[in-house]
TrEMBL record:
<dbReference type="GO" id="GO:0006508">
    <property type="term" value="P:proteolysis"/>
</dbReference>
<dbReference type="InterPro" id="IPR008915">
    <property type="entry name" value="Peptidase_M50"/>
</dbReference>
<keyword id="KW-0862">Zinc</keyword>
<dbReference type="GO" id="GO:0005886">
    <property type="term" value="C:plasma membrane"/>
</dbReference>
<keyword id="KW-1003">Cell membrane</keyword>
<feature type="binding site">
    <location>
        <position position="71"/>
    </location>
    <ligand>
        <name>Zn(2+)</name>
    </ligand>
</feature>
<keyword id="KW-0378">Hydrolase</keyword>
<feature type="domain" description="Peptidase M50">
    <location>
        <begin position="56"/>
        <end position="133"/>
    </location>
</feature>
<keyword id="KW-0812">Transmembrane</keyword>
<dbReference type="Pfam" id="PF02163">
    <property type="entry name" value="Peptidase_M50"/>
</dbReference>
<feature type="transmembrane region" description="Helical">
    <location>
        <begin position="19"/>
        <end position="37"/>
    </location>
</feature>
<keyword id="KW-1133">Transmembrane helix</keyword>
<comment type="similarity">
    <text>Belongs to the peptidase M50B family.</text>
</comment>
<feature type="active site">
    <location>
        <position position="68"/>
    </location>
</feature>
<keyword id="KW-0479">Metal-binding</keyword>
<feature type="binding site">
    <location>
        <position position="164"/>
    </location>
    <ligand>
        <name>Zn(2+)</name>
    </ligand>
</feature>
<keyword id="KW-0482">Metalloprotease</keyword>
Amino acid sequence: MEQGINIGKLFGIQFRLHYGWFIIFGLVSVFLATQVFPDILENTSSLQLWVMGLATSLLFFASVIVHELAHSVVGRANGMQVKSITLFIFGGAANMSEEAETAGSEFKMALAGPASSLVLAGIFYVLYINLNGQSPELAVMNYWLAQINLILAVFNLIPGFPLDGGRILRAAFWQQTKDLTKSTRISTIAGQIFGYLFIAAGIFIVIRTQDWLSGVWLGLLGWYLSDTARTSFRQYTLQQFLKRVSPAEILDTGMPSAKSNQLWADFANRTDKSYILVEDENGLAGIINRHNLKNADSLKSKPLAELYTPISQIPVIPPEENALDIARRMNEDDIEIVRLAGEDTQTGFITLDSFIAYVNKAADKGFTNA
């Protein structure tokens, strides 16, 4: 259910490239090869500048991976599960299936990323000093990497959720108030304020200096920060709500049924439901998931018996799990249907559609409003 291209695993963590990453990778490479390096290295060939730009851009995103990996390793050491790390247009993000259980764990995990970036900045700066008189090209690359890692660390330490600094701020309030929701709201507001300040600064730069590139980029960062702060708080609120929802509340009670010997052509147009119960002479045999049917028009002459997923292959969940546990299971295993243990096999199913419908109905009542 996650978008992106898998590029490998490290420490059991899946790494992905979001499709938007290629845009920013190209922009950074072009910026370095045509703006930064030519101003410093006057006698360097165009081909060499482009090679330097591409190599430095790759090293920059490798630095982002180290930043996110530091979060993940410390998070795992404190009991948090990390499924994947994704690089996208504004940087990177570690996909953790659960929040920190204590303020101390949150603080250590949040601090690990900026700390690793500061260490990288120091390493690249030492390399710059040692290479400065020997290889100007390598020295310039390392100097830029030292700068950008320092900027990455400082930016992420801005005390606004969901940046690392915002999580540190949340951990501090959490430690003092023992109220995670209140602490999250405070750090979210801080994140939105900093986002609006960035936008205002971008507008000011455009008006006063006519530097459209810097102004627009700063404005985009501000928009990203304020929007992700609001979105992250809604996600947190949704997670807290789902922890209080029992599996019985999200059962799909509207699934139509059909006989296994019926043809798909005879049944397909009778309902627009995504999931269909299929019965044979022994009772319920399986479920058809329309989302999994490829080239549905070519299946019209096939009996439903050839299209369903057997009941024995539907994952079973214990009744003590809450809706958040189920959502994580469905997301991590990329499944749309689960069966509630101990329930009637005709009605004890939770589907992606029933889950979304329940959440949308609850959202209409305002539970996710920040």
